[in-house]
């Protein structure tokens, strides 16, 4: 008999008071269907945790850093599939149907296509390249709502404790186990980061950081470079 989907959605947050309620209300249908939503806060001083607590199944306090936060959420998760969701990303309405279909097939992990929320034509081009790139390489980013069978995530010891590229590093290891299951129904990610820095500058920044990462530069130095570029934006 096929295994039934039991989903744990893990949302790492830091200073998300302005948007956390909308994020979690969008996940209410999943909770009503019997799945769990776990919010992992890194001590946000803006009241994020208090706003999130009544709208999730479990609130976890963690040290700062997405890798540490997502691992902390995975430790208390009960589902057979873990889905890591950024607070500014919305799942498609048919997410549960798509994930149930994934569970009935051989791949052990996957991601959604992504669409940026802005209306500029360039954002559609950017999303197309992001989705195409991950189909070709098997490497995915957190904006694409990565999901993985819990037993595999645990066998690989989860995310590496690093301040940047934790999603790229994990999916590189996952790709050695199986190709990602790519769901065409797109998640929608807020385009505010792209609009704040400017689309072209953001593209060049991310590709430059990724190139330096593949050449062996440490995630710590890349995180410092990223923060510096964002502050000067």
From TrEMBL:
<feature type="domain" description="Glycosyltransferase 2-like">
    <location>
        <begin position="8"/>
        <end position="126"/>
    </location>
</feature>
<dbReference type="InterPro" id="IPR001173">
    <property type="entry name" value="Glyco_trans_2-like"/>
</dbReference>
<keyword id="KW-0472">Membrane</keyword>
<protein>
    <submittedName>
        <fullName>Glycosyl transferase, family 2</fullName>
    </submittedName>
</protein>
<keyword id="KW-0328">Glycosyltransferase</keyword>
<dbReference type="Pfam" id="PF00535">
    <property type="entry name" value="Glycos_transf_2"/>
</dbReference>
<dbReference type="GO" id="GO:0005886">
    <property type="term" value="C:plasma membrane"/>
</dbReference>
<dbReference type="InterPro" id="IPR026461">
    <property type="entry name" value="Trfase_2_rSAM/seldom_assoc"/>
</dbReference>
<dbReference type="GO" id="GO:0016757">
    <property type="term" value="F:glycosyltransferase activity"/>
</dbReference>
<dbReference type="InterPro" id="IPR029044">
    <property type="entry name" value="Nucleotide-diphossugar_trans"/>
</dbReference>
<keyword id="KW-1003">Cell membrane</keyword>
<keyword id="KW-0808">Transferase</keyword>
